[in-house]
Amino acid sequence: MMINFYQIKNFIRHYFAAKRNGHGVHSPFAYKLCEEVFYNNNHFYAFDDLKKVRAELLINSTELLIEDLGAGSKTFTSNKRKVNDIARKGISTVKQSEIFYKLINFLNCNIIIELGTSIGLNTLYLSNANKTGKIISIEGSKSLSDFAIKLAKEKEANNIEFINSNFNTALPEILDKLNTLDLLYVDGNHTYEATLNYFKLAIKKKHNNSVFIFDDIYWSPEMTKAWEEIQKHPTVTLSIDTFNFGLIFFREEIKEKVHFKFYL
Ligand SMILES: C[S@@+](CC[C@H](N)C(=O)[O-])C[C@H]1O[C@@H](n2cnc3c(N)ncnc32)[C@H](O)[C@@H]1O
């Protein structure tokens, strides 16, 4: 991702304010998250295979013609993009995808929605984290969605439903059909209105153990504003800011709203 002044300024603030390795984290649930998810260095066998998939994508020079339905890209200028460029600059890092994998394991998430499939590598992490779970991944660009479908087929990831549509229309339709939602990952259309809208739609299906993840919360002032508003929502009891993404929890056993910044 290309870095702008707003992000640098906020990264410096985060660097000095954030907690490390669970030190000073007094909430038992947040501490457990540090141990089991954020600073858990255990080796998961699936990570070896997923790293191989990333290596394959990093040398794939196939050109895709992409229609961008979101708030635009700060990284790409042309709408023709090579798979290896997207794999290098436009998708979740190894560290981030591995954290999502550990989070799904820890919370035992079964019903997962990803907004923004891109080339589908992060989707494979979500899929591998719970092979009996169901992943619904939405992508507006047809060429990206087709690419991700093919990749998932090749890697025998059979628990993913890919939807090629705009989040704005697909998300309410999908949520209508679900009883509950365990994990929502919002990683596209980084505007204030869209981000808050996806949150407000999805909270109708949240439960005590749900987690919502918002990517790029320091992408722009309006994304930070959306993140801060989400944190303040009365249903939210715990929020965790890792700089690159923020997590939102609704656990009723946490009686006093808590907010943490973690340095990963
Ligand atoms: C940053 S990428 C997703 C990366 C992926 N989730 C990962 O972790 O590697 C964001 C994707 O969202 C898609 N997108 C943005 N706005 C959209 C919208 N309103 N509807 C559907 N897709 C959208 C873009 O086409 C892009 O592929």
Question: What features would you highlight for this structure?
Answer:
264 residues, Rossmann fold, 10 helices, two-stranded antiparallel sheet, alpha/beta, binds S-adenosylmethionine, 43% helix
Give the topology.
Layout: H1 5-17, H2 28-38, H3 46-58, E1 63-65, E2 80-82, H4 83-89, H5 94-107, E3 111-115, H6 121-129, E4 134-139, H7 142-154, E5 160-164, H8 167-177, E6 183-186, H9 192-202, E7 211-215, H10 221-232, E8 238-241, E9 245-249, E10 258-261
Parallel strand pairs: 3-4, 3-6, 4-5, 6-7, 8-10
Antiparallel strand pairs: 1-2, 7-9, 8-9
The chain binds S-adenosylmethionine (SAM).
S-adenosylmethionine binds at residues 68-70, 90-92, 114, 116, 118, 121-122, 138-141, 144, 166-168, 187-189.
Structure description:
- This protein is an alpha/beta fold and 264 residues long.
- The protein has a single domain (5-44, 92-261), classed as Rossmann fold, CATH 3.40.50.150.
- Helix content is 43%, strand content 17%.
- It is built from ten helices and ten strands.
- The protein has helices at 5-17, 28-38, 46-58, 83-89, 94-107, 121-129, 142-154, 167-177, 192-202, 221-232; strands at residues 63-65, 80-82, 111-115, 134-139, 160-164, 183-186, 211-215, 238-241, 245-249, 258-261.
- It has an eight-stranded mixed sheet, with helices on both faces. The protein has a two-stranded antiparallel sheet with strand order 1-2.
- β8 and β9 (245-249) form a beta hairpin.
- α2 crosses α5, α5 (94-107) runs parallel beside α6 (121-129) and α9 runs parallel beside α10.
- The longest helix is centred in the middle third of the chain and has 14 residues, at 94-107.
- It is globular, with a radius of gyration of 17 Å.
- The model has no long low-confidence stretch (mean pLDDT 95).
- The structure holds S-adenosylmethionine.
